[in-house]
Amino acid sequence: MSLTGLDIFKLTPKKNCKDCGFPTCLAFSMKVATGAVEIEKCPHMSDEAVSKLADATAPPMKTITIGKGENEYKLGGETVLFRHEKTFVNRNRFALLLSDSMTDEEIESKITSIKKVNYVRIGEEMRVEIVALKYEKSREKYLDLIRKIKESNLNIVYMLICEDVEVLKDALELVKNEKPIVYGATKENYEEMVDLVKGDELPLGIKANNLEELYSLVADIHKLDYKELILDAGSSSIKEAFDNTVQIRRIALKEEDRTFGYPSIVFANELSKGNKFMEIALTSLFILKYGSIIVLGDIDYTRALPLFALRQNIFTDPQRPMRVEPKVYPINNADENSPVLVTVDFALTYFIVSGEVERSKVPVKLAIPDAGGYSVLTAWAAGKLSGSSIAKFIKESGLDENHNCKKLIIPGKVAVLKGDIEDNLPGWEVIVGTDEAMHLPKFLKELQQEATAV
Ligand code: SF4
Fold first, then answer.
1. What kind of fold does domain 5-57 have according to CATH?
2. Is 32's C-beta closer than 6 angstroms to any atom of ligand 1?
3. The model's pTM
4. Which of 368, 387, 289, 355 has its CA nearest to residue 122?
5. pLDDT tens for residues 68-83?
6. Binding site membership of 42 for ligand 1 (Cβ less than 6 Å)
């Protein structure tokens, strides 16, 4: 709910003392209402008023923190229904399900899968972030399962899926310090569950038979003054899960009803009933519509490559291109006798080109001028990559003065810049490189051989 300047004014001490830098409390309140100044700038505001205002100005969807240390992630905190309206903030996290009814071989195989699928795409580590540990029948086996995961040294957040509070107490003794998610609060056990997690403020996953029941359950938990929640959208059918995730998000953001202002969890493994391809399709759907945690049955590269790429694309800010810092990057131990290769600062281009240069094993200095974060052709068309801008960067980076090898390779797609660069950079040999990055290793090796032959 947004507050007007007058609403805020009513909460100020009305001293007109100017300590906040404004001539009157009203002038200060008007600025706070526009978001230009924080309420804390008034040192005389009572704690009660600050907390009232913090509640009223908080985003409609709460941000929930899961995990600890290098395995800490934020969920929720979204402010828009569609990415093009502004941006999505906290990406979905993938969970992999294990249970105490699995054999040792199955458990080992899933641990191996989690370890195996771990790669970097556009500077971001791609891996499963959560292990969902489901209690099915044996308390001892369940506790053994948790111990086994701990011993496997996975970098992971624990999610304990269990409705039995007594079993959960023992399970939490093993991983309480890791800030695990505790999933399994229902209308039957929610009071005990809240008691269990409240002291450590652990995120609590709650489930119900339908949306109305879920709404009442959240309201009941609010009465216990607990708000670290994750909502299960239901998994009795694909239609129900989809309808519910959309409804939960719409009610939170459009109607500003904070009862549903929480991240959600979707069990894609259950909805797909063991069909791997259906699981990939459903996970793609819930990346877009609005699964904050998506539980998978297993992970391998056929699942990971499309899913992680889709997530990364959806959770980049559409108003800000993904960029790398404009500078000179030496690759393969390049020194002042290595050729210089120019490309743009668009992150995807940079990582593809640098990957191919690494693959060539040829020492190269990769020169990245400020090209506005665009791809090569877009930057050229927008006037952000020109002969003079490349020449200026080569001079300003010190390469013109301190570099012995005066060979400058430019992208094949902007071969048209060759003459212009030569005019602006006397003494440099401008070589037109390949159109596609994938052909760079062969091109660079041939260039190296030519240089050695001379
Ligand atoms: S510091 Fe507080 S009390 Fe003083 S003028 Fe500003 S808003 Fe009013």
1. 3-methyladenine DNA Glycosylase II; Chain A, domain 3 (1.10.15)
2. no
3. 0.78
4. 355
5. 999 999 999 998 999 9
6. yes
